[in-house]
C-alpha cells in the first residue's frame, strides 16, 4: 500500500513558493492511450455480452439499457447493481476485461519520458479494476511512472470480500451495494481524500466530459484529453496526452524549486492506494 506524504506548501523560510501544481491525477483508459485502439468499443461489446449471457437480459434490450445505465449511474456495472442485478464484481471485471486485445497496447516511451520528467506526484484514478489497470500500465511500459493507482477496489473497499488476514468473517458483503465511480462528485472527493491532495494544486486528466465537469465541481484543475477544442468547463484540451508539454508548460515551471520542496514518497513502486 502506498504511503503518501503531503507536499510542502512553504519552504524553510516560510515563503509560499510552492509549486503551482503538486499532483497530477490521470484517468487510464482512452486518456493514456488513444481511443483509436478500439478498447472502448471492445469493452462495451463485452459488457453487452455479459448482460445477455450472465444476466439473461433480452439481447434486443441490451444496447439501449447498457447506454441508459451508463448515462444514469456512471458505469453500466454500477447501473446494473443499482437496478437490482446481482453478480460478482470480480467475475464481471474478468469477463469484460479478460478478452480485451491487450496486445494492441504498445510501450509508449514518449509518454514515459514525459511522465518521468514531471516533478509532481502522479496518480492513476480509474473506474476500472486493479488487474486491468496494472495490465494496461504494464503494456504501455508505464508501470513505474505513478505513485499509485486509485481504482474500483480503492473507491469501493466495502464491496470487497472479507480480508482473510484479519480473521474476521465479513458477513456484510453484498453484491448489490451501491458502486461508487466517476463521474459522481462523491467518487472524485473520495479520490482526493485518499490521494491526500489539495484540489486547487491538482490537475485532473480525463477523456470524459462529464468526469471533467464533476472534477471541476470538486475544485480540481481539469484537462480534457482526446479533444482538440476546450470542452467547458475544462481548463485545457489536449488532442493527445503527448501534447501535454506544449499545452501546459506550467507543469514544468520552477522545476528546480519544486524538486527540493516535494517530499518523495517512501515507496516509489506503483501501489494500489487504499
Ligand atoms: Mg477514460
UniProtKB/TrEMBL annotation:
InterPro entries assigned: HAD-like_sf, HAD-SF_hydro_IA, HAD_sf, Pyr-5-nucltdase
Domain of life: Eukaryota
SUPFAM superfamilies on file: HAD-like
UniProt-recorded Gene Ontology molecular function terms: hydrolase activity
Gene3D superfamilies per the UniProt record, alphabetical: HAD superfamily/HAD-like (3.40.50.1000)
PANTHER family given in the database record: HALOACID DEHALOGENASE-LIKE HYDROLASE (PTHR12725:SF117)
Name the UniProt record assigns to this protein: Uncharacterized protein
